[in-house]
Amino acid sequence: SLRYFHTAMTDPGPGMPWFVSVGYVNGENFVRYDSTVQRMEPRTGWMKAAVDAEYWDRETQVLQGQEQTDRVNLVTL
């Protein structure tokens, strides 16, 4: 199964990102993005080898948009 989890926090604590997105395939964490690094990154060797730099750029842009949406949603709450 393929699952993505996005978490946004109003007060994550010192040194912790306020937004995190992780992807899992069959229970294995294979990608991660957070508001500190602001870049989608592979978490497995097979994922790193499977796609090119354009994939990471596209996914990073998508998650930067999600990060901004969640920032607005947190302010609204």
Automatic annotation (TrEMBL):
SUPFAM superfamilies per the UniProt record, alphabetical: MHC antigen-recognition domain
Transmembrane segments: none
UniProt keyword terms in alphabetical order: Disulfide bond, Glycoprotein, Immunity, Membrane, MHC I, Signal, Transmembrane, Transmembrane helix
Subcellular location(s) of the protein: Membrane
Pfam family for this entry, one: MHC_I
Claim: Glycoprotein is one of the keywords in the record: yes
Domain of life of the organism encoding this protein: Eukaryota
GO biological process: antigen processing and presentation of peptide antigen via MHC class I; immune response
GO CC annotations, alphabetized: external side of plasma membrane; extracellular space; MHC class I protein complex
Domain MHC class I-like antigen recognition-like: 1-77
Topology term for the membrane: Single-pass type I membrane protein
Cross-referenced PANTHER family: MAJOR HISTOCOMPATIBILITY COMPLEX CLASS I-RELATED GENE PROTEIN (PTHR16675:SF242), MHC CLASS I-RELATED (PTHR16675)
Name this protein carries in UniProt: HA1F protein
